[in-house]
Amino acid sequence: MQKCWERGNEAALPDNLSYFFGDLDRLFDQFYVPIEQDIVHTRARTIGITEMVFNLRENKMLMVNVVGQKSERQKWIHCFQDVTSILFLVSLR
Predict the structure, then answer these.
(1) What does the alpha-carbon distance between residue 37 and residue 64 come to, in Å, rounded to a whole number?
(2) What's the CA gap between 49 and 67, in Å, rounded?
(3) CA-based nearest residue to 66, from 78, 56, 58
(4) Which one of 12, 34, 78, 86 is most buried, counting C-beta atoms within 10 A?
(5) Helix (H), strand (E), coil (C) string for the chain
(6) Could you read off the pLDDT of 25-79 as tens digits, one per residue?
(7) Lowest-pLDDT range, 12-16, 17-21, 88-92?
């Protein structure tokens, strides 16, 4: 498995693999309960575009969640027409 990890740039290995792989005994324990770091390292793959409308004071806001992978950009680049604000969210790890 270590050899596979060393060649990870040749395949689509998730970036959280090293965290979880290093703790397999704990993760597969029948009484396993996730700790805070397990949750922080969890990643849910998103695809496509999701929208959420909400009110912020007297302003109606539209938040558009777009997938960040380069292969998905052609699906959401049109979302930036007439945009007045952009909020970038990134992982801090």
Answers:
(1) 27
(2) 7
(3) 78
(4) 34
(5) CHHHHHCHHHCCCCCCHHHHHCCHHHHCCCCCCCCHHHHHHCCCCCCCEEEEEEEECCEEEEEEEECCCHHHHHHHHHHHCCCCCCCCCCCCC
(6) 999 999 999 999 998 888 766 677 788 898 989 988 888 777 666 666 777 777 7
(7) 88-92
